Amino acid sequence: MHLIQEASRKGRVDAFVQSTDKNFLVPVGGAIIGSFDKNLLDRISKMYPGRASASSIMDVMITLLSLGMAGYKQLITQRKEMYSYLKEELGKLAARHDERLLDTKGNPISMGMTLQCLSHQHDNKQVTMLGFMLFLRNVSGTRVITTTETKHIVSYKFEGM
Length: 161
Ligand SMILES: *Cc1c(COP(=O)(O)O)cnc(C)c1O
Ligand SMILES: *[C@@H]1O[C@H](CO)[C@@H](O)[C@H](O)[C@H]1NC(C)=O
Hints:
Blueprint: H1 2-10, E1 16-19, H2 20-24, E2 31-34, H3 38-46, H4 55-96, H5 125-136, E3 150-153, E4 156-159
Antiparallel strand pairs: 1-2, 3-4
2-acetamido-2-deoxy-beta-D-glucopyranose (NAG) binds near residues 137 and 138.
Pfam families: SepSecS
Function: Converts O-phosphoseryl-tRNA(Sec) to selenocysteinyl-tRNA(Sec) required for selenoprotein biosynthesis.
EC number: 2.9.1.2
């Protein structure tokens, strides 16, 4: 939020999109568009009535009402504490397996860890298998990347996805 505010203050931010599942603890499926320009927001919302599903709105509404402002803020504080704890423990785990927890300064949300011991030349079966195992064990929010795949999005080619 701080970075978005700074970007808007020093440069230009028309609008930004945030997932409701990550920011408001509801099932995947909704997004909130934010902007510093209320007129622009009004224009965007007029493009959409009746087309999107109402279930995301209901989910967010119910969740926010039951949490209340204090409950929501409390969770944000808790997330900051858990981030340090996760970083510490994941770092230990990585060290135990001769892997590295990547140093990504200025990113207070996500972490990255190498999976060197699972990658063998041209064979990523074990790497993708780990993603599968995490999924089966209900570990959400993780993403295992083989670094050898290529993805095309519109006319852009992304290597190592
Ligand atoms: C969450 C996430 C997505 C998916 O966004 P949704 O709006 O939740 O569908 C895509 N890319 C990254 C990096 C994400 O963290
Ligand atoms: C994962 O979640 C499902 C649904 O809540 C549950 O039935 C299952 O036992 C969980 N699996 C593990 C390994 O915890």
